[in-house]
Amino acid sequence: MARPQAAPFKLTPELRRTSTIVVLGSIMSILDTTIVAVALATLGRDFHVSVTTIQWVATGYLLALALVTPVTGWAVDRFGAKRIWMSSTALFVIGSSLCGLAWSANSLIFFRVLQGIGGGMLLPVGQSILARASGPQRMGRVMSIIGVPMVLGPIMGPVIGGLIVSNYTWRWIFYINVPIGIVTLVLSGRWLPRFDTDGPSRTAFDTVGFCLLSPGLAALIYSLSEVGTTGSYTSPAVLVSFVLGVVLMAGFILHAVRAKHPLLDLHPFKNRNFAIANVCIFVIGATLFGSMFLLPIYYQVARGQEAWMAGLLMAPQGIGAACIMRWAGSITDRLGPRRVVPFGILVMAAATVPFAFVTADTNELLLAVTLFVRGLGLGLSMMPVTAAAYFDLNHAEIPKASTVMNIMRLIGGSVATALFAVVLERQIIANLGPAAAKFGGSAGVVGATVKLPPPVADPVAAAFAHTFWWSVGAILIAFVPTLFLPNHAAVRAPAADSGPADDAPVAGAMLD
């Protein structure tokens, strides 16, 4: 019996409005993971504090994301997606305003944590809203919409941040979120759908699960971020936080399989498509964020570019992904992800190989073209995999499934960043030898803000080239699980699932 074909896709006005709102909110949260990085030196100088202290402006935001993300699924079930989306947006706007008004390093760190609590829910809730609004047969095409800010956000963050710091006060890095957030709130109140599954759920909050999972995830992310900062796996802070994180998360898994209503439902992993898609999400997240760590540092250190220019030089990757994501989503909906994602992975791997031969003066046009092709591969891989994870889920499972996927992506990116940081540090030391000591070790070389002399720049570029081979290897590892993704289009959701009809403008019954 032939499988049903996907209905002709129409981006209805309702779905277009919903997508616009989700993209606006998501890009604010994603931008703020990188936009502050270029201002840390300025912040430390203005507040008269050390680099170690001011680094918590970035680390605090990241840890807040890790703490609040696991709660998202329960919160959506309890209060409804629209209410949580608007509350998170409001909290993010308030946190951004307070960050701009900060009078000390400690106050700024506190307000960044507040901002991160709001920002941590925006991406998973936005994915949940789009997944429920699109229906299973349009999942790939609609999920590709949210992929654009995910790819462009980390790239444009350093560019926007660098331009602001160079021409205005650093406070505008945070104030820039306020008008965008206010517009998002107004549009959300008017246009965001309220689904028939959005109702007051009486499921009790899993306090034990929260005390295990959120601190465990935060401890694990902190340990991996410290590896990226120190370049060492053996420092006390890394070891203690890593062991604590693993123990707490293992404890949560044991608790979740027995609990009636765990904070994070692990039962969707019994679904083959969901489990395989999450393995792919973990590895693709590792390749995306691992390369996002390596590429800007290569441009800044080996080539002497400023941070904002390094971000601009990375833009071809985001442009390539944005150009093909919509088409990739359409093909995924018609043919299934297995016909799309493996090809995208191979394109990514092939386009990463040239970076394994970079020098301190490799032609920038060649690198730009290579990054554009790499972006095409990324666009063919990332959001089709996300769509595959939703294939067999009903509406009630979507909120917590979105939470799981974002946690997998967050951990994958952190693991790759930590691994690549250590590989890069050890390779720099091996290539420079005694010369590394003149720059304060490999950390001093990586922290250089001026163009390195050729005797140093060439070995440093060779260290980056070596590390990019690890990136190629990580991408090829991702190829294996993609061969087990569904090789067919998503089928119509059963009527009992309260899923959307194919010809419905937006999923479910909108009560607004």
Summary keywords:
Growth Hormone, Chain: A; disordered C terminus; globular; 20 helices; mainly alpha; disordered N terminus; 512 residues; 3 domains
Describe it for me?
- By secondary structure, the chain is an all-alpha fold.
- It has three domains: 189 residues, MFS general substrate transporter like domains (Growth Hormone, Chain: A, Up-down Bundle); 57 residues; 228 residues, Up-down Bundle (Growth Hormone, Chain: A), CATH 1.20.1250.
- Helices cover 71% and strands 0% of the residues.
- Helix 7 runs antiparallel to helix 8 and helix 7 packs across helix 18.
Note the gap between the termini: 39 Å
Number of helices: 20
Major beta sheet, specifics?
A: none
Please identify the top-level CATH class of the largest domain.
Mainly Alpha
CATH architecture of the largest domain: Up-down Bundle
Share in β-strands: under 5%
How many domains, as an integer? 3
| Contiguous uncertain segments of 5+ residues | 1-7, 493-512
Tell me the radius of gyration: 22 Å
TL;DR?
The protein has three domains: 11-199, MFS general substrate transporter like domains (Growth Hormone, Chain: A, Up-down Bundle), CATH 1.20.1250; 206-262; 265-492, Growth Hormone, Chain: A. The chain contains 20 helices and no strands. The protein has helices at residues 13-31, 40-47, 51-54, 56-68, 72-79, 81-100, 105-134, 139-167, 172-175, 177-191, 207-230, 236-256, 272-302, 307-313, 315-335, 341-352, 364-389, 398-432, 441-446, 454-482.
